């Protein structure tokens, strides 16, 4: 490691000031600290958000769940409110990484990092979530912009996420054995506005699958998507799986997700 200053503000206002001055935000640290150890990142100042109580917590507001950005994965997984309102989200959180990652990793940190194989971005996009920040509100459709790229400004902090409660939803992923990130993950949600399907692990970022959505709008059954194909040329390939294999997995995971949602 190398020399840097460490700040632990107690209020959101203080954190925003430090961020505006150029400090690097630290949520759960599951990506940033590892990057620093490998000297892939070298911030001069870290701003630990762990001491800001207003950034954590889960509550229900009408037909939405509101989850604070600093809420840990384990807390989302174990929350009775989440398990009752959006069980697919609780199950997703319960399968992120390992026990140690779930104990430290945060909802807001995962979304802000926007790893192309992360789980939460698929949930946010499929459920049509709204990300609340220190400056504005951003819909999930506008938030994710590519490989590790989001709509956040340099000093903008996610404070909470509003999750519409769907009629039915499910998430199925094929995990990479070592990292537990999604080789392919498909989140399917039947909402008041229609069916939304989000895919993670396949490309340079999470994306909606229009063909699967159209098929499921007509018939929300596994059979409806059995013959829907995914263009492999739009996907990435690596040592864990080719683009063609990932395209095949999208269809398989979609069928399983729908079966779980209706079952």
Q: How would you describe what is shown here?
A:
This protein starts with a strand and ends with a helix. 34% of the residues lie in helices and 25% in strands. The chain has 11 helices and 14 strands. By secondary structure, the chain is of the alpha+beta class. The chain is globular. The longest helix is centred in the last third of the chain and has 20 residues, at 243-262. Among the domains are: 1-47, 2-Layer Sandwich (Uridine Diphospho-n-acetylenolpyruvylglucosamine Reductase, domain 2); 168-262, CO dehydrogenase flavoprotein, C-terminal domain (Enolase-like, domain 1), CATH 3.30.390.50.
- Would you tell me the overall average pLDDT? 95
The SS-based structural class is alpha+beta
Global Rg: 18 Å
Specify the CATH class of the domain at 168-262: Alpha Beta
Helix coverage percent of residues? 25-40%
Compute the number of helices: 11
Beginning-to-end CA distance, first to last residue: 50 Å
In the CATH hierarchy, what is the superfamily of the domain at 168-262?
Answer: CO dehydrogenase flavoprotein, C-terminal domain
How much strand?
15-25%
Low-confidence segments, given as residue ranges, are none
The CATH architecture term of the domain at 168-262 is 2-Layer Sandwich
How do the helices and strands follow one another from N- to C-terminus?
EHEHEEEHHHHHHEEHEEEEEEEHH
Principal-axes shape call: globular
Number of strands: 14
Largest beta sheet: what is the strand line-up?
4-5-10-6-7
| Named CATH topology of the domain at 168-262 | Enolase-like, domain 1
Biggest sheet character: 5 strands, antiparallel
């Amino acid at each position: 490691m190398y020399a840097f200053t460490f700040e632990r503000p107690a209020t959101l206002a203080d954190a925003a000031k430090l961020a505006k001055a150029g400090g690097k935000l630290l949520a759960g640290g599951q990506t940033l600290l590892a990057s620093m150890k490998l000297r892939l990142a070298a911030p001069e100042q870290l701003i630990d958000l762990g001491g800001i109580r207003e950034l954590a917590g889960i509550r229900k507001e009408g037909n939405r769940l509101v989850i604070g950005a600093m809420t840990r994965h384990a807390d989302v997984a174990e929350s009775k409110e989440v398990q009752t309102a959006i069980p697919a989200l609780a199950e997703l959180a319960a399968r992120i990484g390992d026990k140690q990652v779930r104990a430290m990793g945060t909802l807001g940190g995962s979304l802000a990092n926007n790893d192309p194989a992360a789980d939460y971005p698929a949930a946010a996009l499929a459920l049509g979530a709204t990300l609340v920040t220190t400056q504005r509100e951003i819909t999930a459709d506008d938030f994710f912009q590519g490989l590790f790229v989001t709509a956040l400004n340099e000093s903008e902090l996610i404070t909470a996420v509003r999750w519409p409660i769907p009629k039915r939803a499910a998430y199925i992923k094929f995990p990479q054995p070592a990292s537990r990130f999604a080789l392919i993950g498909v989140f399917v949600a039947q909402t008041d506005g229609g069916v939304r399907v989000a895919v993670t692990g396949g490309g340079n970022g999470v994306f909606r699958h229009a063909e699967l959505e159209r098929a499921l709008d007509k018939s929300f059954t596994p059979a409806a998507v059995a013959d829907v194909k995914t263009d492999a040329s739009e996907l990435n390939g690596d040592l864990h799986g080719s683009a063609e294999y990932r395209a095949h997995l999208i269809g398989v995971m979609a069928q399983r997700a729908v079966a779980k949602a209706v079952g």
